[in-house]
Amino acid sequence: MLIAIALLPISIRAQQLQFYRPDNMLGINEFETPKIDTIKFTGLKVKVGGNFEMEFQALRNFNTATPMTRTGFTGNVNSLEPLTNGFALPMANLNVDAQLADGVRMNITVY
To answer: What is the pTM of this model?
Structure first.
């Protein structure tokens, strides 16, 4: 909570770029940037951001097959390996947006 309050002034002063498509959930299903120029060009601007995800998995499995034994194996051949809860591999993105000239914008996303 304290981090969110500390970052609030930064997000309020964020630079506005021409023809910008948000990198967060607001940009979902927006495949092309808007074609209407609503922001006046005032010079070179660079916006750097990032995304981070760390998901937790709690999976369960079961098998209703008839127990079966086979020569050379001990136990039930139809049994499943037990699953445990845990975190998947974390993922992060680095987003760089730059307004280079009037109507010229560059976007780089490093996955």
So the answer is: 0.56
